[in-house]
Amino acid sequence: MVNESVAYTLQDDLFQNVEIADSPIKHCAVALSDVIKNGKRLDAQKYDVELRKYQNLIANHKYGTKHITGGDKGLCTSYRPGICKRIFVNRSDCSEGMLTPSQVTDINPKAEKFVSEEFAKKRSDWFVKQGEILLTCSGTVGCISFVSKTLNNKFVSQNLIRIVPKNETDTGYVYAYLKSSPGQMFLTRSNYGAVIKHIDPEHLATVPIPDVPDAIKKRIHELIIRSYDLRDESNDLIDEATGLLTKELKLPGIEAFNVNLYRKNANVDTFNVKLSDMAGRVDASYHVPIVDAIVNHLKKYAAEVTTVGDKRISKEIILPGRFKRVYVEDGYGRVFIGGKQLFELDPTNKKYLSLVHHGNRIAKQLELHEGMTLITCSGTIGKVALVGKRWENWTANQHIIRVVPATKDIAGYISIFLASEYGYPLITRFTYGSVVDEIDDIHVGSIPFPLLKNAEVQKRINELALKASEKRDEAYKMEQKALKIVDNEVIFAK
User: What angle is formed at CA 420 by the lines to CA 418 and CA 426, rounded to 5 degrees?
Assistant: First the structure.
């Protein structure tokens, strides 16, 4: 039996220089007083070796420390909307789109789930406000986003903590700090839950943050705000390009297409398919009438409807082969991303692929280059993204098809059409698989693709898409510069 008074007299500095054996398992001694101080938590991650290193570093910081939240010592306040049962409805004029935690880190998130307007009105605290910082707090913990013009007044899931800085210039600083290595460590090592991980707003009161001079905070804040302004500007350009495409092709809303259903009042969609149109496919999803309706409309208003595989459109369509991956630490390999990360400016949870083991495959199949259009082809089908300079020479997994444009003059136009609500059904109609959905490079090459009658409009759409990509590249640079200041002048300030 341990005498409690003895436990409380143990000093933290007795355990700061614990030697760690060269072993894949990290281990160290933990004072009983630390266990009591941490709410009697017995999960090892709470006492991680790296975490303790950062705790000591921040606790002894030259500028002193505050906390993210918590009374006078907190830079911010925080809240999480109440949990309630959600009943989702079909998209309609009387529904409100709801963004999920996995979407708020996207550059331009689009709602895929909808609730009734009546439900949304009762949950006014689910609408986020410009200037708030959002933190995922359930499942994947610690992802950070900022509410700029794009997210302002959007209806967002209760599974995100809203962080509200007391002073405006603290906003960018807190955002960048929480994205840094110690910030992420403090957040992810505070979670609890055996299956689904969680953190609560109260945990933020235990997260220390250096109390650096206002001049440093202001520089970081301005870089982060500029980064999000550029993202908003890029979204406006994408919307303008999509609007030009829609206007030139006289495309109605996707729900307005008059599809040829066999029985319009049936509980399920029913339709006829000619034997000559079967194309060897007997799965109903391949023959959905909306595809024929879109293609027929394109043929009517486009100069020509060709395919993505046309050599005037794409130089090459690459589907990497499957392989066993060997990961390495940051700095020893190429950045490696997956389909879930395509819509993010700076993908979270990046991995690093070994050049020694995969050098040849990286060069021939996996490497990303500016101007490529990426299409997810396994699991979630049809997510489309244009590769900018920021991802040059990064790598992506074999669940993403690369469309290499024939020229730069068509690169942006490809991404705008395929990413539109009209391109999506043309991509997903090729889906096959009983458990995991798949499409392949041959399918992508067969996707119908319109060339516009007005070449100047098509050129303008292409230019807008490329300009949007450039703004996102610049936004990435701004955020990386802010994170570098956090590293050099805040965390490791001398």
Answer: 55
